Amino acid sequence: MFVGHALFAFAVAALVADWRGWERRPALLVGAVAGAFATIPDLDVAYALVGLLEWRALGGDLGAPAAFWGASRVVHRSVTHSLVVGAVAASAFGFLAVRVRSQSGRARVAHIAGLSILATLVGVALVWSGPLAAFVMALFAVGGIVVTRGTARLSRLAPSTVAIAALWGLWSHPWGDLLTGSPPDWLFPFGAPVLESRLVLHPDPTLHLLGAFAVELATVWFALAVGYRLTGRSILTSVDRRAAVGAVYGVAALAVTPPTLEVSYHFVFSILGVGLLCSVAPETASLVRPRSRLRSRVVPAFESTLEVALTALAAVTIALFAYLAVYLVAVPT
Hints:
Layout: H1 2-19, H2 24-39, H3 48-57, H4 64-72, H5 83-96, H6 105-129, H7 131-154, H8 159-172, H9 205-230, H10 252-255, H11 265-280, H12 293-298, H13 301-330
Helix pairs in contact: 1-2, 1-8, 1-9, 2-8, 3-4, 5-6, 5-7, 5-8, 6-7, 9-13, 11-13
Keywords: Hydrolase, Membrane, Transmembrane, Transmembrane helix
Organism: Natronorubrum aibiense
InterPro entries: YdjM-like
């Protein structure tokens, strides 16, 4: 889901910018900035490293993945996922996006205001939830500062645009967690009386997992479609026919334990492995037209990388639907 948060924020921001008449490059840039901000709330999983240290100290009885995610749940989706915190932090990042010029008092005042707002958020987290919450809030603030200052140095985006991109990225993030985990602390430091439980797509836990995985894949396809549209490329000409091999993965529904949110590692790693194998297999032809030897020699490395990624994604998508079809037909529920 980490990738999905960023890609969804990128796609919507870039698409809106394009709809507003922006040039392609600035539209892609503001999308990238929004996507970067959308990843910042998940910096709270850094605390999960403590779980790995405890796991190592105790001799590894639980297993590394269980220890990692067990520790992450202590603070994950808490203070950094709040819509209130996101709105306040976005204004701070807007202040910090003001570019520094020689003897610019305006920039200094803006930066002091931004840092003061972020320091206040850390203080609120300390008072309301304790030192651990303050620690992850500080990580959140530092991550936002890095994205903000990097954007100010490398682009000409206005501070107000950076603030809006930050707001969208931070606000879009919590909604992606509704299918795969406990709901976030929506209105920290206030109460959150709505959406207090996970959204269930299907009472069968395996079908729920497959549905959540399909939503994630759809998000990736959406982002790629936006990126390809803004750069004038065609998706179909970039997908190799070897992606169809992903259909073989359907037999996995008969051979392995049905996955659930609680136990999904074997499914996720194996289906992603199918995509990887299909993408590195010998090249055949695209779904639209065959590739000539001349074209294969002149296609830049970036284009080749995109083709590999799209072929892998298509293979994973085909594998998912093949698995779903076999599961529905042949696996008793």
